[in-house]
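Re: Re: C-alpha coordinate formats

Sure, here are both.
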Amino acid sequence: MSSVSVGTFNPGQRSEQAEARIAVVLPCYNEAATIASVIDSFRKSLPDATIYVFDNNSSDATANIARRAGAIVRSETRQGKGHVVRRIFADVEADIYVMADGDGTYDATLAPTLIELMKRNHVDMVVGTRADVTKDAGRGGHAFGNKIFNRLFSAMFGRQFTDIFSGYRVFSRRFAKSFPAVSGGFEIETEMSVHSCQLGIPTLERPTPYGVRPEDSASKLRTFRDGFRILGMFFMLAKETRPAAFFGAIGMLLTLIALGLSMPLVLTYLETGLVPRLPTAILSVGLIMVATVTAVCGLILDSLARARVEAKRSVFLSYPAADWSK
Protein backbone atom coordinates (compact mmCIF):
# COMPACT_ATOMS: atom_id res chain seq x y z
CA MET A 1 0.00 0.00 0.00
CA SER A 2 0.91 3.68 -0.11
CA SER A 3 3.34 4.85 2.58
CA VAL A 4 1.20 7.85 3.58
CA SER A 5 -0.97 7.51 6.67
CA VAL A 6 -4.44 8.98 7.00
CA GLY A 7 -6.00 10.90 9.83
CA THR A 8 -8.24 9.61 12.59
CA PHE A 9 -11.53 8.09 11.41
CA ASN A 10 -14.87 7.70 13.15
CA PRO A 11 -15.60 4.48 15.02
CA GLY A 12 -15.80 1.59 12.58
CA GLN A 13 -13.30 3.17 10.21
CA ARG A 14 -9.61 2.45 9.92
CA SER A 15 -7.19 3.51 12.63
CA GLU A 16 -4.82 6.46 12.43
CA GLN A 17 -1.81 4.18 11.96
CA ALA A 18 -3.25 2.32 8.97
CA GLU A 19 -1.84 3.07 5.55
CA ALA A 20 -3.95 4.77 2.89
CA ARG A 21 -5.84 2.40 0.63
CA ILE A 22 -6.05 3.30 -3.05
CA ALA A 23 -8.80 1.95 -5.28
CA VAL A 24 -8.80 2.32 -9.06
CA VAL A 25 -12.43 2.11 -10.20
CA LEU A 26 -13.30 1.63 -13.87
CA PRO A 27 -16.95 1.88 -15.01
CA CYS A 28 -17.24 -0.22 -18.19
CA TYR A 29 -19.73 -1.00 -20.92
CA ASN A 30 -18.50 -3.06 -23.88
CA GLU A 31 -14.81 -2.26 -23.48
CA ALA A 32 -13.39 -5.70 -24.33
CA ALA A 33 -10.96 -4.17 -26.83
CA THR A 34 -9.24 -1.94 -24.26
CA ILE A 35 -9.94 -3.03 -20.69
CA ALA A 36 -6.97 -5.40 -20.33
CA SER A 37 -4.46 -2.73 -21.35
CA VAL A 38 -6.15 -0.15 -19.08
CA ILE A 39 -5.89 -2.50 -16.10
CA ASP A 40 -2.26 -3.24 -16.90
CA SER A 41 -1.43 0.47 -17.20
CA PHE A 42 -2.95 1.34 -13.83
CA ARG A 43 -1.30 -1.65 -12.17
CA LYS A 44 2.08 -0.41 -13.36
CA SER A 45 1.40 3.17 -12.26
CA LEU A 46 -0.20 2.26 -8.92
CA PRO A 47 1.18 -1.18 -7.96
CA ASP A 48 -0.30 -1.03 -4.44
CA ALA A 49 -3.81 -0.10 -5.59
CA THR A 50 -6.79 -2.45 -5.81
CA ILE A 51 -8.34 -2.33 -9.27
CA TYR A 52 -12.12 -2.68 -9.66
CA VAL A 53 -14.02 -3.05 -12.91
CA PHE A 54 -17.76 -2.38 -12.66
CA ASP A 55 -19.41 -3.97 -15.67
CA ASN A 56 -22.65 -2.31 -16.80
CA ASN A 57 -24.45 -5.06 -18.75
CA SER A 58 -21.74 -5.48 -21.38
CA SER A 59 -22.71 -7.71 -24.28
CA ASP A 60 -19.08 -8.55 -25.05
CA ALA A 61 -16.36 -10.23 -22.97
CA THR A 62 -15.43 -7.15 -20.92
CA ALA A 63 -16.06 -8.82 -17.55
CA ASN A 64 -14.18 -12.03 -18.37
CA ILE A 65 -11.20 -10.19 -19.83
CA ALA A 66 -11.04 -7.88 -16.80
CA ARG A 67 -11.18 -10.85 -14.45
CA ARG A 68 -8.36 -12.60 -16.31
CA ALA A 69 -6.34 -9.39 -16.14
CA GLY A 70 -6.53 -9.53 -12.36
CA ALA A 71 -9.18 -6.91 -11.58
CA ILE A 72 -12.00 -7.36 -9.10
CA VAL A 73 -15.11 -7.45 -11.28
CA ARG A 74 -18.54 -6.40 -10.07
CA SER A 75 -21.77 -5.79 -11.95
CA GLU A 76 -24.39 -3.05 -12.01
CA THR A 77 -27.58 -4.05 -13.83
CA ARG A 78 -29.15 -0.59 -14.01
CA GLN A 79 -27.92 0.89 -17.27
CA GLY A 80 -26.06 4.19 -17.09
CA LYS A 81 -22.77 5.53 -15.76
CA GLY A 82 -24.48 7.41 -12.95
CA HIS A 83 -25.86 4.16 -11.53
CA VAL A 84 -22.41 2.59 -11.75
CA VAL A 85 -20.70 5.49 -9.95
CA ARG A 86 -23.33 5.42 -7.21
CA ARG A 87 -22.67 1.70 -6.75
CA ILE A 88 -18.90 2.26 -6.71
CA PHE A 89 -19.06 4.87 -3.96
CA ALA A 90 -21.42 2.70 -1.93
CA ASP A 91 -19.55 -0.61 -2.20
CA VAL A 92 -15.85 0.17 -2.51
CA GLU A 93 -13.98 0.92 0.71
CA ALA A 94 -10.85 3.01 0.20
CA ASP A 95 -9.17 6.22 1.29
CA ILE A 96 -8.37 7.38 -2.24
CA TYR A 97 -10.52 6.64 -5.29
CA VAL A 98 -9.05 6.95 -8.79
CA MET A 99 -11.83 6.86 -11.37
CA ALA A 100 -11.22 6.54 -15.11
CA ASP A 101 -13.00 5.12 -18.14
CA GLY A 102 -12.18 1.71 -19.50
CA ASP A 103 -11.69 2.90 -23.08
CA GLY A 104 -7.98 3.69 -22.79
CA THR A 105 -8.33 7.43 -23.50
CA TYR A 106 -6.91 8.50 -20.12
CA ASP A 107 -3.21 8.39 -19.25
CA ALA A 108 -2.74 6.01 -16.31
CA THR A 109 0.85 7.17 -15.77
CA LEU A 110 -0.47 10.48 -14.41
CA ALA A 111 -2.54 8.84 -11.66
CA PRO A 112 0.27 9.17 -9.06
CA THR A 113 0.58 12.86 -9.96
CA LEU A 114 -3.14 13.45 -9.44
CA ILE A 115 -2.99 11.65 -6.09
CA GLU A 116 0.03 13.67 -5.01
CA LEU A 117 -1.78 16.89 -5.95
CA MET A 118 -4.71 15.88 -3.75
CA LYS A 119 -2.43 15.10 -0.81
CA ARG A 120 -0.15 18.11 -1.14
CA ASN A 121 -2.99 20.60 -1.50
CA HIS A 122 -5.41 18.90 0.91
CA VAL A 123 -8.33 18.86 -1.54
CA ASP A 124 -11.13 16.34 -1.92
CA MET A 125 -11.27 16.03 -5.70
CA VAL A 126 -8.71 16.42 -8.47
CA VAL A 127 -9.99 16.49 -12.04
CA GLY A 128 -7.76 15.43 -14.90
CA THR A 129 -8.90 17.92 -17.53
CA ARG A 130 -8.69 16.59 -21.07
CA ALA A 131 -6.20 18.05 -23.51
CA ASP A 132 -7.10 17.58 -27.19
CA VAL A 133 -10.66 16.60 -26.26
CA THR A 134 -11.71 17.90 -29.69
CA LYS A 135 -10.07 14.79 -31.19
CA ASP A 136 -12.50 12.44 -29.47
CA ALA A 137 -13.09 9.99 -32.33
CA GLY A 138 -13.00 13.00 -34.66
CA ARG A 139 -16.39 14.20 -33.47
CA GLY A 140 -16.80 17.92 -33.91
CA GLY A 141 -20.23 17.75 -32.26
CA HIS A 142 -18.68 16.53 -29.02
CA ALA A 143 -16.09 19.31 -29.07
CA PHE A 144 -18.73 22.00 -29.68
CA GLY A 145 -20.95 20.56 -26.95
CA ASN A 146 -18.06 20.54 -24.49
CA LYS A 147 -17.39 24.24 -25.07
CA ILE A 148 -21.05 25.25 -24.81
CA PHE A 149 -21.78 23.23 -21.67
CA ASN A 150 -18.62 24.34 -19.87
CA ARG A 151 -19.47 27.98 -20.55
CA LEU A 152 -23.05 27.43 -19.45
CA PHE A 153 -21.80 25.75 -16.26
CA SER A 154 -19.52 28.70 -15.51
CA ALA A 155 -22.40 31.13 -15.96
CA MET A 156 -24.82 29.14 -13.80
CA PHE A 157 -22.66 27.66 -11.04
CA GLY A 158 -19.26 29.39 -11.04
CA ARG A 159 -15.83 29.11 -12.63
CA GLN A 160 -14.43 26.35 -10.42
CA PHE A 161 -14.13 23.89 -13.34
CA THR A 162 -13.05 24.10 -16.97
CA ASP A 163 -13.85 20.50 -17.97
CA ILE A 164 -16.99 19.28 -16.23
CA PHE A 165 -17.24 16.12 -18.36
CA SER A 166 -13.85 14.62 -17.60
CA GLY A 167 -14.12 11.04 -16.34
CA TYR A 168 -10.58 11.04 -14.93
CA ARG A 169 -10.91 12.05 -11.28
CA VAL A 170 -9.35 11.36 -7.90
CA PHE A 171 -11.59 11.53 -4.82
CA SER A 172 -11.06 11.51 -1.09
CA ARG A 173 -13.05 9.09 1.01
CA ARG A 174 -15.23 11.80 2.47
CA PHE A 175 -16.23 13.04 -1.00
CA ALA A 176 -17.08 9.53 -2.22
CA LYS A 177 -19.08 8.56 0.84
CA SER A 178 -21.01 11.83 1.16
CA PHE A 179 -21.82 12.49 -2.51
CA PRO A 180 -25.63 12.22 -2.98
CA ALA A 181 -25.67 11.01 -6.59
CA VAL A 182 -29.08 11.20 -8.26
CA SER A 183 -28.31 11.11 -12.00
CA GLY A 184 -28.24 7.86 -13.91
CA GLY A 185 -26.16 8.52 -17.02
CA PHE A 186 -23.23 10.50 -18.42
CA GLU A 187 -24.45 13.59 -16.59
CA ILE A 188 -22.98 12.21 -13.33
CA GLU A 189 -19.77 14.24 -13.83
CA THR A 190 -21.86 17.43 -14.10
CA GLU A 191 -23.59 16.55 -10.85
CA MET A 192 -20.22 16.04 -9.12
CA SER A 193 -19.06 19.45 -10.28
CA VAL A 194 -22.24 21.21 -9.14
CA HIS A 195 -22.06 19.42 -5.79
CA SER A 196 -18.50 20.67 -5.28
CA CYS A 197 -19.41 24.25 -6.21
CA GLN A 198 -22.50 24.26 -4.02
CA LEU A 199 -20.72 23.05 -0.87
CA GLY A 200 -17.45 24.85 -1.53
CA ILE A 201 -15.54 21.56 -1.55
CA PRO A 202 -11.83 22.15 -2.25
CA THR A 203 -10.88 20.84 -5.68
CA LEU A 204 -8.10 21.11 -8.24
CA GLU A 205 -7.70 20.58 -11.98
CA ARG A 206 -4.67 19.24 -13.81
CA PRO A 207 -4.38 19.00 -17.62
CA THR A 208 -3.86 15.43 -18.84
CA PRO A 209 -3.41 13.93 -22.30
CA TYR A 210 -6.60 12.63 -23.88
CA GLY A 211 -6.19 9.80 -26.34
CA VAL A 212 -8.26 8.62 -29.28
CA ARG A 213 -10.20 5.39 -29.01
CA PRO A 214 -8.90 2.37 -30.92
CA GLU A 215 -10.70 1.67 -34.19
CA ASP A 216 -12.45 -1.39 -32.73
CA SER A 217 -13.75 0.57 -29.72
CA ALA A 218 -16.92 2.65 -30.14
CA SER A 219 -17.94 5.67 -28.07
CA LYS A 220 -21.07 5.19 -25.96
CA LEU A 221 -21.83 8.91 -25.98
CA ARG A 222 -24.63 10.01 -28.30
CA THR A 223 -24.24 13.68 -29.19
CA PHE A 224 -27.88 14.80 -29.25
CA ARG A 225 -29.48 12.28 -26.89
CA ASP A 226 -26.93 12.72 -24.13
CA GLY A 227 -26.61 16.44 -24.86
CA PHE A 228 -30.31 16.95 -24.12
CA ARG A 229 -30.03 14.78 -21.01
CA ILE A 230 -27.11 16.86 -19.75
CA LEU A 231 -28.99 20.08 -20.53
CA GLY A 232 -31.95 18.73 -18.56
CA MET A 233 -29.62 17.93 -15.66
CA PHE A 234 -28.32 21.52 -15.79
CA PHE A 235 -31.80 22.95 -15.36
CA MET A 236 -32.78 20.38 -12.74
CA LEU A 237 -29.68 21.19 -10.68
CA ALA A 238 -30.29 24.92 -11.15
CA LYS A 239 -33.83 24.42 -9.82
CA GLU A 240 -32.55 22.45 -6.85
CA THR A 241 -29.53 24.59 -5.96
CA ARG A 242 -30.63 28.10 -7.02
CA PRO A 243 -34.45 28.12 -6.89
CA ALA A 244 -34.76 31.87 -6.31
CA ALA A 245 -32.83 32.66 -9.49
CA PHE A 246 -34.48 29.80 -11.43
CA PHE A 247 -38.09 30.64 -10.60
CA GLY A 248 -37.33 34.35 -10.56
CA ALA A 249 -36.17 34.10 -14.18
CA ILE A 250 -39.40 32.28 -15.12
CA GLY A 251 -41.45 34.93 -13.31
CA MET A 252 -39.57 37.70 -15.09
CA LEU A 253 -40.15 36.06 -18.48
CA LEU A 254 -43.89 35.73 -17.82
CA THR A 255 -44.02 39.35 -16.67
CA LEU A 256 -42.32 40.56 -19.86
CA ILE A 257 -44.76 38.54 -21.99
CA ALA A 258 -47.69 40.00 -20.06
CA LEU A 259 -46.36 43.53 -20.49
CA GLY A 260 -45.86 42.95 -24.22
CA LEU A 261 -49.44 41.74 -24.61
CA SER A 262 -50.98 44.46 -22.45
CA MET A 263 -49.07 47.51 -23.73
CA PRO A 264 -51.29 48.02 -26.85
CA LEU A 265 -54.36 47.65 -24.65
CA VAL A 266 -53.10 50.26 -22.21
CA LEU A 267 -52.36 52.73 -25.04
CA THR A 268 -55.80 52.14 -26.55
CA TYR A 269 -57.46 52.61 -23.16
CA LEU A 270 -55.60 55.89 -22.59
CA GLU A 271 -56.72 57.17 -25.98
CA THR A 272 -60.33 55.94 -26.06
CA GLY A 273 -61.21 54.76 -22.56
CA LEU A 274 -62.10 51.36 -24.00
CA VAL A 275 -60.59 47.86 -23.69
CA PRO A 276 -61.25 46.34 -27.14
CA ARG A 277 -59.62 42.92 -26.55
CA LEU A 278 -60.91 41.66 -23.24
CA PRO A 279 -59.49 38.08 -23.60
CA THR A 280 -55.99 39.53 -24.08
CA ALA A 281 -56.44 41.69 -20.99
CA ILE A 282 -57.53 38.66 -18.95
CA LEU A 283 -54.55 36.67 -20.24
CA SER A 284 -52.14 39.45 -19.28
CA VAL A 285 -53.54 39.66 -15.77
CA GLY A 286 -53.36 35.88 -15.46
CA LEU A 287 -49.72 35.85 -16.54
CA ILE A 288 -48.86 38.51 -13.97
CA MET A 289 -50.55 36.45 -11.25
CA VAL A 290 -48.69 33.29 -12.30
CA ALA A 291 -45.41 35.23 -12.41
CA THR A 292 -45.98 36.51 -8.88
CA VAL A 293 -46.78 33.04 -7.53
CA THR A 294 -43.72 31.62 -9.31
CA ALA A 295 -41.41 34.22 -7.79
CA VAL A 296 -42.83 33.65 -4.31
CA CYS A 297 -42.38 29.88 -4.70
CA GLY A 298 -38.76 30.52 -5.68
CA LEU A 299 -38.17 32.52 -2.49
CA ILE A 300 -39.72 29.79 -0.33
CA LEU A 301 -37.77 27.03 -2.06
CA ASP A 302 -34.58 29.05 -1.68
CA SER A 303 -34.89 28.78 2.09
CA LEU A 304 -35.37 25.01 1.79
CA ALA A 305 -32.38 24.77 -0.57
CA ARG A 306 -30.20 26.54 1.98
CA ALA A 307 -31.27 24.03 4.61
CA ARG A 308 -30.41 21.17 2.25
CA VAL A 309 -26.96 22.64 1.63
CA GLU A 310 -26.38 22.81 5.37
CA ALA A 311 -27.48 19.17 5.74
CA LYS A 312 -25.24 17.99 2.89
CA ARG A 313 -22.35 20.00 4.30
CA SER A 314 -22.87 18.34 7.68
CA VAL A 315 -22.77 14.90 6.09
CA PHE A 316 -19.61 15.82 4.20
CA LEU A 317 -17.91 17.07 7.37
CA SER A 318 -18.96 13.96 9.31
CA TYR A 319 -16.16 12.17 7.44
CA PRO A 320 -12.86 13.51 8.82
CA ALA A 321 -10.31 14.90 6.42
CA ALA A 322 -7.27 12.70 5.84
CA ASP A 323 -4.05 13.99 7.37
CA TRP A 324 -1.58 13.46 4.54
CA SER A 325 1.21 15.19 6.46
CA LYS A 326 1.87 12.07 8.53
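Second one below.
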Amino acid sequence: MSQVNLFEIGQIENELKEIEILISSLHHLELKYAYLQKIASIREQLIQSLLFHYNVRTPTTPFTLAQLQQNYNGKNNQPAYIAIDNIVYDLTYEATWGGGTHFGLQAGEDVSHALANCHSQNKEEIISKLMPVGILESPVIP
Protein backbone atom coordinates (compact mmCIF):
# COMPACT_ATOMS: atom_id res chain seq x y z
CA MET A 1 0.00 0.00 0.00
CA SER A 2 2.13 2.85 -1.26
CA GLN A 3 -0.43 5.64 -1.12
CA VAL A 4 -2.63 5.59 1.97
CA ASN A 5 -6.07 6.98 1.29
CA LEU A 6 -7.95 7.32 4.58
CA PHE A 7 -11.32 7.44 2.83
CA GLU A 8 -10.60 4.08 1.16
CA ILE A 9 -9.41 2.64 4.47
CA GLY A 10 -12.67 3.78 6.08
CA GLN A 11 -14.68 2.19 3.29
CA ILE A 12 -12.77 -1.08 3.64
CA GLU A 13 -13.30 -1.05 7.42
CA ASN A 14 -17.04 -0.53 6.94
CA GLU A 15 -17.19 -3.39 4.46
CA LEU A 16 -15.27 -5.63 6.87
CA LYS A 17 -17.78 -4.84 9.62
CA GLU A 18 -20.69 -5.70 7.32
CA ILE A 19 -19.02 -8.98 6.34
CA GLU A 20 -18.42 -9.81 10.01
CA ILE A 21 -22.12 -9.34 10.73
CA LEU A 22 -23.00 -11.72 7.90
CA ILE A 23 -20.41 -14.26 9.02
CA SER A 24 -21.69 -14.17 12.59
CA SER A 25 -24.94 -15.68 11.33
CA LEU A 26 -23.16 -18.75 9.92
CA HIS A 27 -23.96 -22.00 11.68
CA HIS A 28 -20.86 -23.87 10.48
CA LEU A 29 -18.45 -22.96 13.28
CA GLU A 30 -15.26 -23.94 11.44
CA LEU A 31 -16.15 -21.72 8.47
CA LYS A 32 -17.21 -18.88 10.76
CA TYR A 33 -13.90 -19.04 12.64
CA ALA A 34 -11.84 -19.25 9.42
CA TYR A 35 -13.62 -16.25 7.89
CA LEU A 36 -13.31 -14.15 11.03
CA GLN A 37 -9.59 -14.98 11.21
CA LYS A 38 -9.15 -13.86 7.59
CA ILE A 39 -10.93 -10.57 8.31
CA ALA A 40 -8.74 -10.03 11.38
CA SER A 41 -5.69 -10.61 9.20
CA ILE A 42 -6.86 -8.10 6.58
CA ARG A 43 -7.62 -5.54 9.28
CA GLU A 44 -4.20 -6.11 10.85
CA GLN A 45 -2.48 -5.53 7.51
CA LEU A 46 -4.42 -2.29 7.02
CA ILE A 47 -3.56 -1.06 10.49
CA GLN A 48 0.10 -2.00 10.17
CA SER A 49 0.27 -0.21 6.80
CA LEU A 50 -1.19 2.93 8.34
CA LEU A 51 1.10 2.78 11.35
CA PHE A 52 4.14 2.30 9.12
CA HIS A 53 3.08 4.99 6.62
CA TYR A 54 2.50 7.60 9.32
CA ASN A 55 5.41 6.39 11.49
CA VAL A 56 3.02 6.03 14.43
CA ARG A 57 4.38 4.93 17.78
CA THR A 58 2.40 3.61 20.73
CA PRO A 59 -0.44 6.01 21.49
CA THR A 60 -0.21 7.83 24.80
CA THR A 61 -3.94 8.05 25.59
CA PRO A 62 -4.16 7.22 29.30
CA PHE A 63 -6.59 4.60 30.59
CA THR A 64 -7.24 3.53 34.16
CA LEU A 65 -8.00 -0.08 34.98
CA ALA A 66 -11.43 1.07 36.21
CA GLN A 67 -12.13 2.67 32.80
CA LEU A 68 -11.11 -0.52 31.02
CA GLN A 69 -13.31 -2.66 33.25
CA GLN A 70 -16.33 -0.40 32.91
CA ASN A 71 -16.16 0.81 29.29
CA TYR A 72 -13.93 -1.60 27.36
CA ASN A 73 -14.90 -5.09 28.51
CA GLY A 74 -16.33 -6.29 25.18
CA LYS A 75 -19.81 -6.79 26.63
CA ASN A 76 -23.01 -5.17 25.31
CA ASN A 77 -21.32 -3.96 22.12
CA GLN A 78 -18.53 -2.21 24.02
CA PRO A 79 -15.01 -2.29 22.59
CA ALA A 80 -12.71 -4.99 23.99
CA TYR A 81 -9.43 -3.60 25.35
CA ILE A 82 -6.78 -5.33 27.44
CA ALA A 83 -3.61 -4.11 29.09
CA ILE A 84 -0.27 -5.89 28.72
CA ASP A 85 2.79 -4.47 30.43
CA ASN A 86 1.08 -1.07 30.84
CA ILE A 87 0.15 -0.78 27.14
CA VAL A 88 -3.57 -0.91 26.24
CA TYR A 89 -4.54 -2.89 23.13
CA ASP A 90 -7.78 -3.01 21.16
CA LEU A 91 -9.04 -6.58 20.65
CA THR A 92 -12.54 -5.63 19.54
CA TYR A 93 -12.20 -7.34 16.17
CA GLU A 94 -10.02 -10.26 17.22
CA ALA A 95 -12.01 -13.43 16.54
CA THR A 96 -10.32 -15.22 19.44
CA TRP A 97 -11.69 -12.59 21.84
CA GLY A 98 -15.33 -12.86 20.75
CA GLY A 99 -17.69 -11.48 23.38
CA GLY A 100 -14.73 -9.99 25.23
CA THR A 101 -13.46 -13.32 26.57
CA HIS A 102 -10.57 -15.61 25.71
CA PHE A 103 -9.95 -18.89 27.56
CA GLY A 104 -11.31 -17.53 30.84
CA LEU A 105 -9.75 -14.08 30.48
CA GLN A 106 -12.00 -11.04 30.29
CA ALA A 107 -11.44 -7.88 28.23
CA GLY A 108 -11.12 -4.77 30.35
CA GLU A 109 -8.39 -6.35 32.46
CA ASP A 110 -4.61 -6.33 32.75
CA VAL A 111 -3.66 -9.73 31.31
CA SER A 112 0.13 -9.32 31.60
CA HIS A 113 0.55 -12.11 34.11
CA ALA A 114 -1.70 -14.56 32.26
CA LEU A 115 0.04 -13.88 28.94
CA ALA A 116 3.46 -14.38 30.49
CA ASN A 117 2.34 -17.68 32.03
CA CYS A 118 0.56 -19.10 28.98
CA HIS A 119 2.65 -17.71 26.15
CA SER A 120 6.14 -17.17 27.52
CA GLN A 121 7.69 -18.57 24.31
CA ASN A 122 5.74 -16.39 21.85
CA LYS A 123 4.58 -13.43 23.93
CA GLU A 124 6.34 -10.81 21.78
CA GLU A 125 4.99 -12.35 18.58
CA ILE A 126 1.44 -12.16 19.94
CA ILE A 127 1.88 -8.57 21.14
CA SER A 128 3.33 -7.47 17.79
CA LYS A 129 0.02 -8.37 16.12
CA LEU A 130 -2.13 -6.28 18.48
CA MET A 131 -3.28 -2.70 17.95
CA PRO A 132 -2.01 -0.39 20.72
CA VAL A 133 -4.45 2.34 21.70
CA GLY A 134 -2.96 3.83 24.86
CA ILE A 135 -1.19 3.33 28.14
CA LEU A 136 -2.41 2.01 31.46
CA GLU A 137 -2.11 4.57 34.21
CA SER A 138 -0.89 3.31 37.52
CA PRO A 139 -3.40 3.79 40.30
CA VAL A 140 -2.68 6.72 42.59
CA ILE A 141 -1.93 5.45 46.07
CA PRO A 142 -2.72 8.06 48.75
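Helices lie at 6-24, 29-53, 65-71, 112-118, 123-128. The beta strands are 62-63, 81-84, 87-90, 101-102, 105-106, 131-136.
- S.
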